[in-house]
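Example S7 (structure tokens).
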């Protein structure tokens, strides 16, 4: 049973944790890794802060109808420009 993990794997598990996709075993190994790796602790801290700020934001996305309309207008403008 391998407990130690490289930094790139730790960062990947950190990302998975953000979306609640990490397994319990991955979380245990990540926390052990974070005990000795300052760079990964910083990455995890920044990732957590980013997730928090995104959840707090009041971002409104376009609905699919508006997106389709914008794409149609863009395609039309591009075709007119090319001709």
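Recovered sequence:
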């Amino acid at each position: 049973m391998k407990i130690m993990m490289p930094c790139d794997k730790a960062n990947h598990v950190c990302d998975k944790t953000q979306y609640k996709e990490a397994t319990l075993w991955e979380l245990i190994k990540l926390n052990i890794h974070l005990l000795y790796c300052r760079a990964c602790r910083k990455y995890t801290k920044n990732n957590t802060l980013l997730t928090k700020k995104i959840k707090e934001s009041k971002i409104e996305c376009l609905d699919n109808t508006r997106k389709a309309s914008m794409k149609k207008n863009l395609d039309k403008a591009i075709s007119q420009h090319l001709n």
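Notes on this example. The longest helix spans residues 38-56.
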